[in-house]
Amino acid sequence: MDRMLSEERTAFLERDFYQGFIKTCGFKLDLLERGRAKSSLEVTKAHSQQDDFVHAGVMATMADHTAGYAAFSVVPEDSRILTLEFKINFLRPAVGDRLICSAKVVKEGKNILVADSEVYSQSDGAEKLAAKALVTLMAVPATALRSK
Amino acid sequence: MDRMLSEERTAFLERDFYQGFIKTCGFKLDLLERGRAKSSLEVTKAHSQQDDFVHAGVMATMADHTAGYAAFSVVPEDSRILTLEFKINFLRPAVGDRLICSAKVVKEGKNILVADSEVYSQSDGAEKLAAKALVTLMAVPATALRSK
Amino acid sequence: MDRMLSEERTAFLERDFYQGFIKTCGFKLDLLERGRAKSSLEVTKAHSQQDDFVHAGVMATMADHTAGYAAFSVVPEDSRILTLEFKINFLRPAVGDRLICSAKVVKEGKNILVADSEVYSQSDGAEKLAAKALVTLMAVPATALRSK
Amino acid sequence: MDRMLSEERTAFLERDFYQGFIKTCGFKLDLLERGRAKSSLEVTKAHSQQDDFVHAGVMATMADHTAGYAAFSVVPEDSRILTLEFKINFLRPAVGDRLICSAKVVKEGKNILVADSEVYSQSDGAEKLAAKALVTLMAVPATALRSK
């Protein structure tokens, strides 16, 4: 039971997900469980790079943010999450109508969490692994951030 | 002399820089020399994350894209640049009105190039190193991309 | 059938695995299949760092080398493998008698391959994920290396 | 003055540097200042990989360990340093008689430190940048490690 997110916590994190740059990009949160999150994006011209593939920065943002909310789902309610660093490999140029991201926490430390995050591109029903990331995150008391 | 970019090449790369996601984000190319590029961003709410810092994805996109054009400046004119992977460390929460990014090519291989990219946040005239990235890029013949 | 390694190729790669620094470290190749490799290490004082954990460099070497032979198993026989870069997260201080590494190729490009590599520490029968890496490798014609 | 390391602290860190895997590899600490460290290695067959270049794991270990002692030089004396993660790019196959590594702390947080680390290969007097790393480290109270 304590492995489950409360309805209140889930509702809070779902609202918290959508702010600023995430709204600018248009990512959607599709699933949130303890230690896991999934998101998606309807790809448009607004996400492209100079050769009409999805920009690496779109996939990096998606991998990071989805990993962030996977991490949020396991920390105390008065904690916030900051990304310390991430690394992402782009495995093939991403084309198609839709991106899907799946992130899971692979190490749950008290302060430091590590997640991996995969981005798939969907095109004509087929799904291909487009990018793979490893993300290091830090849990920080909300009070510590407010004082900055 | 052969270390310099022609006016035509510079003009082409300056136009090429601004497309899709880069326009969505609002990055500006401020300098382009052989092996170096600088960019900037006027920060707004559209770039923020859930705690009102600049989103990690904004800095990651900026570090990647600026590194990409530093790489573009050293490859043959019929080559395009794809990012193979990057890693970025976020050194402090980025606040302030403006981001500046400076990228330089540290290894110029025939096919594989490596660049480092630094993102600074400006606030009240002070400038702080906010993020540091290492980016691996691949030069690809333009014809190879068109066939995809 | 073409997904299988020939006996000759397997024997060649098994011999090729053990050279120089790998013998210095004492890694053992335990499995080699197309796109996958596993290795192990009996941990001694010779592998420790200043706090008696296994040195990060031991795990990094193991993750890299095992990923390298996973990549070797999928490229043409006249190709050699070079590591372009890797990133590794250390998830907990590694203690115990034995390390196990499992690597698999996640993207098989003609020139560029990406593998992930996990290092587990064994202690009193229990196995824990100690490190997780993403490795970018390049297939290079053997003739290109000989001329260097 | 408070930017300087005491003689006692320097002597302690110099001794602390040489243990286990570092003695196995043969790295030498050449310089230690507040926030900076340099090391070197006389390259032998014991450091090679399958194509007679220096093994990526040797350079990774050197980059990590040297960054670690750059970090040690800035934390309180009752703190120990653990590597959370690193990323390293190998810029050219390393040949030659000697490696030199130079690491500096680029962000000095209370708990989290980031360093960059460069490895140069020396051959016939010439020095070439062979690898470049970004390393994330954590300062941990010595008492916390002893209880593990």
Q: Can you offer a commentary on this structure?
A:
The structure is a homotetramer of 148-residue chains. In chain A, strands 1-2-4-5-6-3 form a 6-stranded antiparallel beta sheet. Chain A is globular, with a radius of gyration of 15 Å. The first copy, chain A, has helices at residues 7-17, 21-25, 56-72, 142-146, and strands at residues 28-33, 36-42, 79-90, 98-108, 112-123, 126-141. With 148 residues, chain A is an alpha+beta fold. At the A-C interface, β6 of A face β6 of C.
**Spatial order of the strands forming the largest sheet of chain A:** 1-2-4-5-6-3
Number of helical elements of chain A: 4
Assembly status: homotetramer
Biggest sheet of chain A: strands, sense, closure?
6 strands, antiparallel
Strand content of chain A: 35-45%
Global geometry of chain A: globular
Helix content of chain A: 25-40%
The radius of gyration over CA of chain A amounts to 15 Å
Helix-strand category of chain A = alpha+beta
- Largest interface chains and counts: A-B, 40 and 40 residues
End-to-end C-alpha gap of chain A: 36 Å
Q: pLDDT average of chain A, as an integer?
A: 94
**DSSP summary, beta strand count of chain A:** 6
Unreliable residue stretches of chain A: none
What letter string, H or E per element, gives the SSE order of chain A? HHEEHEEEEH
